[in-house]
Write a structure and sequence with these properties.
The structure is a single chain. The protein has helices at 7-26, 30-42, 44-59, 63-66, 72-95, 98-117, 128-145, 149-157, 163-187, 193-216, 222-242. The two termini are 30 Å apart. It is built from eleven helices and no strands.
């Protein structure tokens, strides 16, 4: 049983609340907050596994309201392409020096943020080819660096969908992606009993944050949501360089 009054656990719980609130509000971004802190507290292996567990847990109460706004055909195409992209990212990781890749990824994310901030949007519904490309890049980056989020966030934010639909689709997509990644950890025996117990003890914190974020979402304007989402993408790009 984890020591619920120890400093590491209290720090982890506080971060889980904030990360859950971000996820409940924006539909993504929780991993950006949890992974570096959890990795520092528990080590990278346990930290990443904990993050994946809590990412799935926080999304479960958000799904019932989200599914009504989900375009399942697009989600399916994204997931198929992402699954194909992950092994390509893993192979690239073993053959290319990580430092140049981190700079390249951060530069691409920042360029995408600048494009969105300029007001650019594509018109109409994205074609299947564009959806497959976005999913493939997401899977590639997930296999390369664990950064599956930026391509999908850009894909939805660049469209004409309402922020409610954007948030719902992001929430749903990352449930599947995180669950698949967690399954891979379990299959490789990287999630031990102690890690699962730690995750269950942290679950109330991340759930409380997620429900709070969901309550705050209807109070925000579309402009605020988009600014927050762009800010999260900038933070991901910078964090990839300094962490």
């Amino acid at each position: 049983m984890p020591d619920l009054l120890s400093l590491p656990f209290l720090i982890a719980a506080a971060v889980a609340v904030v990360a859950g609130m971000v996820r409940g509000f924006a539909g993504f971004g929780a991993a950006m907050l949890m992974t570096p802190v959890f990795s520092a507290l528990y080590g990278p292996g346990i930290g990443v596994a904990l993050c994946l567990m809590l990412e799935v847990i926080v999304a479960l109460p958000l799904l019932p309201r989200a599914v009504a706004h989900v375009d399942w055909r697009r989600i399916g195409l994204l997931l198929v392409a992402a699954a194909a992209g992950v092994p390509v990212g893993n192979v690239t990781l073993t053959r290319i020096a990580p430092e140049p890749m981190r700079w390249a990824i951060s530069g691409i994310v920042l360029a995408a943020v600048a494009l969105l901030a300029s007001g650019w949007r594509y018109h109409g519904k994205p074609r299947p080819a564009a959806t497959l490309v976005a999913g493939g890049i997401s899977g590639f980056l997930n296999g390369l660096s664990g950064m599956a989020g930026p391509p999908i966030a850009f894909y939805y934010l660049a469209g004409k969908d309402s922020v409610e639909r954007v948030r719902a689709n992001l929430t749903t997509y990352f449930v599947f992606v995180d669950a698949a990644a967690l399954s891979a950890f379990v299959a490789r025996d990287l999630v031990r009993w102690e890690t699962g117990l730690e995750g269950l003890c942290l679950a109330p914190a991340v759930l409380a944050g997620g429900l709070l974020g969901e309550r705050l979402f209807p109070l925000a304007s579309e402009g605020f949501y988009r600014r927050l989402a762009l800010g999260l993408l900038v933070a991901v790009a910078i964090g990839a360089l300094i962490l």
